[in-house]
Amino acid sequence: MKAAHLLLVDDDVSLLRLLSMRLESRGFRVTTAESGREALNCFERDRPDLVLSDLRMDEMDGLALFHEIQDRQPGLPVIILTAHGSIPEAVSATRQGVFGFLTKPIDRQELFNFVDEALAQTPGAATAEDSWRAEIITRSDIMEQVLEQARLVAGSDVSVLVSGPSGSGKELLAHAIHKASNRRNHPFIAINCGALPEQLLESELFGHARGAFTGAVSAHEGLFQAADGGTLFLDEIGDMPLTLQVKLLRALQERQIRPLGSTRSIAVDVRIISATHRDLDAAMKAGDFREDLYYRLNVVNLRLPPLKERAEDVPLLVKHMVSRIAERHNASVQGFSPEAINLLATRSWPGNVRQLFNVVEQCVALSGTPIIPRALVEQALASDENALPSFNEARAGFEHGYLVKVLKITEGNVTQAARIAGRNRTDFYKLLSRHDLDPASFKGKG
C-alpha cells in the first residue's frame, strides 16, 4: 500500500522542516504549507490522509482551517499544534471534532503516536492497489485475513460462497471481489433469493418469453443475461426453492440458460458469488438444499465474522458512517464523544454493521451538538431495542421459539414434535434446518 499522505501547516519554516524530516523518516509522504490559505490550495491539489496544523497563524488560524477542511471532506482527521496550549483551548478544539492537540515543543514519540492513532481510525483514501476494498472499513486482523483470501480468489473465476450473519456485509465483500477481478469492467448484479416467490425469482434470474405466464405481455431479459461478462451475486441462496436449484445447477454446468416459456437456450458467461446466513450443511442433511449445487457454489468459502468479533472496528465504522450521514443530510455533526464511542464498542450488535448504521443515523438526526454525547447513544440504543420488528423478523422469532419449546417438551423426539406442530416429518426437518436447530441437543432436557 502507498505511504499515508500528511499535510503539515505552520508559519514557522524551521519547525516545518524539522517535523517534515521526522515524519518522512517514518515513511510518510509529507506536503508542507506556511499558511492556512496555502494549505487549502495544497488540499485541493492532492487530498491528504491527515492534517497537522499550527493553532496560531495570521489570517486563518488552525481551527478556522479545520472547519474549512471539514466542509470539503467531513471526517478527515486534523491534529492541532500550538505553543500556547491550554486546557480550555484543547477542550474546545476536541469538542469541535479536532482529533488531537499537541503542545510545542513537540515530543518526537508523542507525535508519532498521535499520527499512527489518527491514521488507524481513518477510513482513508483508496490507493490504486487497494481501491477494490475501499468500501470495507476495517483494522481487524480477522477481517484482514478474509480480505486477503478474497483478493487471492478474485483473480480466478471460481465460484465463491460468502457465509456470515445478517448485516455483516456479505454483498459488500462480493462487490469487492468483483472489483478486484478481471470482470470489474462488466456488470455486478445482485438479487436476494429469499425475497421473491418462486415463479418471479425464476423469471428474474432466467428471463421469460412473451406469454410464458399470465401478465407476460413481452419478453423479459433475466439477470444471467444482464450480468453477462460480469458477476451475479445470489444473496440468501439457502432460501432458493429446490426446483429452482435444479435449474440453477444446470445453468452453471452448461453455461447456458433457458428463459421461462422458451425453447431456446442462451449462452452466458457469468461468475457466481453466493451468500447465506444459514447452515447449508444442515440444510443438505434435511433435504432442503441440493448437495451437487452446494459443491458447485462452495468452491471457496469466505466467512464474515459478526461485528462482536471485530469490536476494534466500531470506532472506525462510526467515524465513516457519521461522515457519510452528515454529508447526505447536511448535518453539522462531526462525531461521538469518547464515552459514546466506548458504549457503542462494547455492544454485542446482533444486527451487526447494519444495526450499527441505524443507531448512528438516529443519533446524527437527533443531535443538537457537533459531538454526540453518551446520553443520546443510550437513548438510541433503547429505542432500537424497543423497535417493532418487521413481519419476517417477527415470524422467524416466533418460529424459533416455538420449535425450541416443542423440542424441549418431546426431549428431541422429532416424530412427536412434528405431531404437536401439525407438520409431517419432512417439513418439520426443513423448519429445524432453517433455524439451525439440532434435535439431538434437546435429549434429556424436557
Automatic annotation (TrEMBL):
The keyword Protease does not apply. Transmembrane segments: none annotated. SUPFAM superfamilies: CheY-like, Homeodomain-like, P-loop containing nucleoside triphosphate hydrolases. Coiled coil: none annotated. The keyword Transcription regulation applies. One of its GO terms (biological process) is phosphorelay signal transduction system. CDD domains: AAA. Pfam families: AAA_lid_14, Response_reg, Sigma54_activat. Signal peptide: none annotated. Keywords: ATP-binding, DNA-binding, Nucleotide-binding, Phosphoprotein, Transcription, Transcription regulation, Two-component regulatory system. GO terms for molecular function: ATP binding; DNA binding. It comes from the Bacteria. NCBIfam families: PRK15115.1. This is Two-component system response regulator GlrR. It comes from Kushneria phosphatilytica.
